[in-house]
Amino acid sequence: MPVESGSSAAARQAKTKRKSHSLSIRRTNSTEQERSGLQRDMLEGQDSKLPLSLRSNLLDLFSQIEREFENLYIENLELRREIETLNDRLAPDGQTFEGADLAKGALKTKASHSTSQLSQKLKTTYKASTSKIVSSFKATTSRAVCQLVREYVGHRDGIWDLSVTRTQPVVLGTASADHTAMLWSIETGKCLLKYLGHQGSVNSIKFHPTEQMALTASGDQTAHIWRYQVQLPTPQPVADMSQQTPCEDDVDFSDKDEPDGEVEGPNDCPSVRVATTTLRSHQGVVIAADWLVGGKQVVTASWDRAANLYDVETSELVHSLTGHDQELTHCCTHPTQRLVVTSSRDTTFRLWDFRDPSIHSVNVFQGHTDTVTSAVFTVGDNVVSGSDDRTVKVWDLKNMRSPIATIRTDSAVNRISVSVNQRIIALPHDNRQVRLFDMSGVRLARLPRTNRQGHRRMVCCSAWCEDNASCNLFSCGFDRQAIGWNINIPALLQEK
């Protein structure tokens, strides 16, 4: 009997496979024709504003899509059978194929194949810079322990900014779109004082470095300096609002618990209605303000594209800092030196140097592609900037050509803050999240966000408090509340 060659046997096997595959497709087509006929009969009896011809075309398109998926499913079954056959043959030799990986590679469509090629090209292109660019989705081997300690509820509109006093008594200050600023007891969550001197949204609040004075910026085109005196209430036992659990990444996003009505503000809270000093020079909304080191001068940032430097004692305008092409979004001062950084919608932020009274050098940072929402100093020679382009960048003041670290996120970044002691960056996002990174760009944690805790709307600002044991991080958002968090970073993560 003649022996059949290996090539002819393989050809016949392939021909048989194609024949069976074509038969399965014919069966699918015939079944689909019967199904589409039934669907067309059903369409005639349904009430719809779409023309029958258009509905029929849509059905034909969906039928074609379904056939394609059925064909892929059939190919998947055949490939799995081949994998099982190969594994049976290679098992005596101690070799096997990973069926899942092989099937996944063989089942890629043209679109997914081109996506894979693009992904590989991106990996090759950015291979040299992966040490600087850190994705926010990078998993960490150890997680920070984050606990929601207290909520501060009382504003009638969104909270734009918050800050913590640098001197005793340590209190929390919030600035809201409801035209008020409030001071809160960190331990009890009780409102201690309400400032009612502004005629517009209060966009920023900062405390004097040594005295009991607050600086607020407003949409009424002014900045106010006002004094406060508060009496801290007796601390109450802290309610266990959440278990101490590692910050989770797979949390549920839900607005079912979103309050519809207005939140009643505290009625028995003392108030201050008159400012000690009113700073007037801007022609637009004053979006932010801060104290220079020493507390004798303040800087304000406005939508009129200028930042102004004022003398606190005389209320006189000392310098007008111009150069930005669009509205300013934030300003920040260095904790120990006479340096100011301003950010703008023109995608840049600028460094202003007032250490020499005769020279006001300006450096422009152009590392972002969208609005720079904030830029803040660290204790060292670094500036951290956040942007609507979904990135946060760490800069070295001694080398401003390129950032030393870039953090890429999945949402626009608002007013960031950096911990003085632990050097941790807190990122408030438009998507209601707050993420924590170290200065090298490694993600440490994401604060809990579930139906029962966390912010329900955009998180506008974050602020660290180094002098409080129960709450060392605060966040506020447009859900009209501020939240106090306890963040415990393992020593292993801090060393990294």
What report would you give on this structure?
The chain is α+β, with helices and mostly antiparallel strands and 496 residues long. Helices cover 22% and strands 33% of the residues. Strands 1-24-23-22-21 form a five-stranded mixed β-sheet, with no helix packed on it. Strands 10-2-31-30-29 form a five-stranded antiparallel β-sheet, with no helix packed on it. Helix 1 runs antiparallel to helix 2 and helix 2 (52-90) packs antiparallel against helix 3 (99-106). The longest helix is centred in the N-terminal third of the chain and has 39 residues, at 6-44. The relative contact order is 0.11. The model is unreliable at 1-6, 18-30, 98-119, 121-142, 241-245 and 248-265 (pLDDT under 50).
Secondary structure elements and their pairing?
Elements: H1 6-44, H2 52-90, H3 99-106, H4 110-125, E1 133-135, E2 145-153, E3 159-164, E4 171-176, E5 181-185, E6 191-195, E7 202-207, E8 213-218, E9 222-227, E10 245-246, E11 271-272, E12 277-280, E13 286-291, E14 297-302, E15 306-311, E16 317-322, E17 328-333, E18 339-344, E19 349-353, E20 362-365, E21 372-377, E22 382-387, E23 391-396, E24 405-408, E25 417-418, E26 424-428, E27 434-438, E28 443-446, E29 459-464, E30 473-477, E31 481-488, H5 491-495
Parallel strand pairs: 1-24, 6-11
Antiparallel strand pairs: 2-10, 2-31, 3-4, 4-5, 5-6, 7-8, 8-9, 9-12, 13-14, 14-15, 15-16, 17-18, 18-19, 19-20, 21-22, 22-23, 23-24, 25-26, 26-27, 27-28, 29-30, 30-31
